[in-house]
Amino acid sequence: MDEKWAELEPTIEEYNKVHNDLKANQKKRSELEAKMKPLNDQMKAAVDKVGVMANRSYRAGPASGLNSILQTSSPTALTDQLIYLDRLAEGERQDIEAVTAARSEMDKQKAALDKVVSEQEKRDKELADKKTQVEKELDELEKLQEEAYGSVANVPSSGSTSPSDGNCSSSGASGVAATVVATACAQLGKPYVFGAAGPGSFDCSGLVAFSYAAAGISLPHSTVSQWNMGTSIPADQAQKGDVVFFNSSLSHDGIYLGNGMMVHAPQPGMSVEVLRIDVMPVVGFRRYG
């Protein structure tokens, strides 16, 4: 059963990462759509302005302006009118360039938007497929647990301590670390739920993200993404509130409590608990804030 979970947990964290990437793409798409509106308005205004000038020129005819100039008797007036016509032509050129620039910018934005939408659609399908498969495997795992222990509530956790154990305390920590540990310890006994990030249930990276959010630090709901943030800390310098990561696939993490202990969300059928970190292969520690 433990082997089955070790195989399944990386898939769960991959799901979390895909889900986060999907939300990021959706946000980017919304931002691009918001930019498109003023760009469309700008383009319409430029087109309308050029259209008005073109319409005036069409109604008056090119000969009309030329006759007015030729009939001017004063050299000064003639010069003034020529300058006016030159400025008018320059204005029309600028309007056309403005339209072209607006169109070019809109096309760039549209191309970027299309790319994001395409990526989002691809990830959406991957997400749906992974979710279906993970849920199926989770159901199978819980059935195995029930067969072995009679009820998932009776599943033991090797190396864990009771939810009331004094090991889960923010004593000795300060600032961000104190808030993170206190928040994580307050979740003891809450059930593990795949993809959950509180407040009533958690998976491993969800508990980490939830605890750090209480300290004003935003972390993604993914062990791999969390590993790629913050500062790497040597094991002999790890302190309360640091995040400890496990397995070469970075499939699990928890909040370090010091003295070789952590608080974490373990697996389906179990609850947030305090556990020794030496029951799994530690790959490193990270510190945030």
Q: What key phrases describe this protein's structure?
A:
alpha+beta; seven-stranded antiparallel sheet; 6 helices; 58% helix; elongated; hydrolase; NLP_P60_dom; protease; Cell wall-associated NlpC family hydrolase
How would you characterize this protein structure?
This protein has 289 residues and is of the alpha+beta class. It has 2 domains: 2-149, Helix Hairpins, CATH 1.10.287; 159-287, Alpha-Beta Complex (endopeptidase fold (from Nostoc punctiforme)). 58% of the residues lie in helices and 10% in strands. The chain is built from 6 helices and 7 strands. Strands 1-6-5-4-3-7-2 form a 7-stranded antiparallel sheet. Strand 3 (243-246) and strand 4 (252-258) form a beta hairpin. The longest helix has 75 residues, at 75-149.
Which secondary structure elements does this structure contain, and how are they paired or packed?
Blueprint: H1 2-60, H2 62-70, H3 75-149, E1 160-161, H4 175-185, H5 204-213, H6 223-227, E2 231-233, E3 243-246, E4 252-258, E5 261-264, E6 273-276, E7 282-287
Antiparallel strand pairs: 1-6, 2-7, 3-4, 3-7, 4-5, 5-6
Helix pairs in contact: 1-3, 4-5
Pfam families: NLPC_P60
Protein name: Cell wall-associated NlpC family hydrolase
GO molecular function, one term: cysteine-type peptidase activity
Summarize the structure.
The chain is 58% helix and 10% strand.
Which class of secondary structure composition applies to the elements?
alpha+beta
How many beta-strand runs?
Answer: 7
Helical fraction equals: 55-70%
**CATH class label of the largest domain:** Mainly Alpha
Q: Give the CA-based shape.
A: elongated
In the sheet with the most strands, the strands line up as 1-6-5-4-3-7-2
Q: What order do the SSEs take from the amino end to the carboxyl end, as H and E? A: HHHEHHHEEEEEE
The averaged pLDDT comes out at 80
Number of domains: 2
